[in-house]
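Severity: low
Component: inverse-folding endpoint
Summary: output formatting inconsistent between runs
Steps to reproduce: submit the following structure tokens with default settings.
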């Protein structure tokens, strides 16, 4: 059973959407809708993908508020913390019974409601494009025109491993962000056309982040909530 199906199975109890849906993305979102696009010229695509990789690799640490919305309009909010290499945490707030965290090697979904922990190698999640941009974005990214010189939208997937899923990463030019591009949101779409959008705001770069941020209390051994 995949992480996506497990998250969907929980949806009857609370509105949890998949941050990293596996499946087939069909286009690039520009203003909340999926629009068909034609491939950009090879030269333009290569240059823009290089800029996106540079922007992601330029982030040593980052915190941002996130809003996570599924196709039914169910929304969750929290704080995302990112630290190179490969560490990320989605914190849904004090008292939440869900935590998603990567320690740089594996991605965990921790469900404190049913005392369950599920683990995936980072490379088997579309979030690998965010956590390992040099490998995933450059090697597996495809630029699709957005109609705006200030917006770069990249479709990321491994064509040899479609079961790992796709993500659309959307950047907006911002001179105050690393590499001059700011990641504003991403969209995942699975084979059943279930879409999840994660939007970022209030970006803070270069903030102190302790290594303990990416650890968690294992509910299989403790009844404590995530820190």
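Observed output (run 2 of 3):
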């Amino acid at each position: 059973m995949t992480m996506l199906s497990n998250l969907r199975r929980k949806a009857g109890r609370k509105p949890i959407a998949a941050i990293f849906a596996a499946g087939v993305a069909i286009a690039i979102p520009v203003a909340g809708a999926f629009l068909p696009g034609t491939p950009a010229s090879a030269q333009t695509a290569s240059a823009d993908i290089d800029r996106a990789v540079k922007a992601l690799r330029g982030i040593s640490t980052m915190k941002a508020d996130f809003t996570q919305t599924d196709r039914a309009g169910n929304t969750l909010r929290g704080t995302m913390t990112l630290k190179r290499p490969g560490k990320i945490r989605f914190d849904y707030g004090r008292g939440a019974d869900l935590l998603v965290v990567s320690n740089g090697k594996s991605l965990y979904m921790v469900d404190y409601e049913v005392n369950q922990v599920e683990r995936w190698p980072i490379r088997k999640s579309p979030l690998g494009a965010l956590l390992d941009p040099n490998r995933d974005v450059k090697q597996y990214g495809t630029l699709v025109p957005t109609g705006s010189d200030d917006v770069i939208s990249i479709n990321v997937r491994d064509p040899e491993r479609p079961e790992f899923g796709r993500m659309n990463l959307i950047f907006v030019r911002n001179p105050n962000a690393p590499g001059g591009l700011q990641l504003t949101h991403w969209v995942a779409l699975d084979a059943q056309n279930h879409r999840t959008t994660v939007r970022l705001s209030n970006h803070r770069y270069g903030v102190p982040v302790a290594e303990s941020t990416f650890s968690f209390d294992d509910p299989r051994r403790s009844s404590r909530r995530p820190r």
